[in-house]
Specification:
By secondary structure, the chain is an alpha/beta fold. Helices cover 42% and strands 14% of the residues. A seven-stranded parallel β-sheet has the order 3-2-1-4-5-6-7, sandwiched between helices. α1 runs parallel beside α2. It starts with 17 loop residues before the first strand and ends in an 8-residue tail after the last strand. One of its GO terms (biological process) is bile acid metabolic process.
Length: 260
Amino acid sequence: MTDFGNFTLDFFSLKGKVAIITGANQGLGMAYAAAFAKAGADLFIPHFTPDTAEVKQLVEAEGRRVEFLQGDLTKKDYIQQVVDTCVEKYGRIDILVNNAGASAFAPFDEYPDKYWDMCINLDLNAVYFLSHAVSKIMKQQGGGKIINIGSALSYTADKHCPPYTAAKHGVIGLTRVFANELGEFNIQTNAISPGFLATEVNAELRKDPAFYNKITNRIPAGRWGEMEDLMGTIIYLASRASDYVNGWSISVDGGFTTTL
C-alpha cells in the first residue's frame, strides 16, 4: 500500500523562517505579514511611508519578531541595504515577497513620462533587483521562496494605466525567469495575482455604483475579495507544501480573469 505518512499539516508551518515582505506596513502587504506571523515566521519589512505601528502590533501579538528599514526600493543601494540588514538582524532570508508597488492613472494621450518611469522602476525593476540580490543568500543557505505579486492586469489590460499593466505582465515573466534560473538550487519562485479586493485604497471607487457593479458582475464568486482570501495562498507558496510548484501564478480573483 502507498505510504503518505510523511505528509502532515506541519508542511504549511513557517516556524523558524525569516521573511522579507516589501511594503507590508499597509494594504495587502499587511495581510501577508499577519498571515506569516500566524504561521510562525519572523519578519523584515522594507517600507517607504513611515506608518509601521499597526503591522508591528499585529506581528508581535502573534509572538513573532519584526524589524523595519525605511527607504526607496527604486534605489539600488537601498535594495542592497535591505538584504544586508536582514542578514545582520536575523542571519538568514528564507522568503521574499515582492509586494511593494504603485500605480498612476492619466489619459493615454497625455500620460506623463514620469508616471511611466515611477511605476516601471518600482513595480518591475525593483522586483528583479531585490530578487536577484536575495537569491544569492538563498543559494548559500540551500533554498528559499520568492513570491511576486502580480494582478488581474497581469493577464488583462485597462485604460489609463499603461506602466502598471506592462509591469504586472512583466512580473509574471520574471517569475518564470527566476524559476528557471534558481530551481536547481531549491529556490521556488511563484506569484499571486490578486483580483479586486475591498480595501481602504479603493473605498471611494466602490461607492460608484456603475464601477462597482461592472466589476462585481464579472466575478463568478459574486463579491469582491477580502484580505483573508489572500492569506492561505501566501502561506502555501511560502511553505514546504509548495516545494514542487515553481514558475506559476495563482490568481486569487474569484474567477474574474476567467470571464469575458
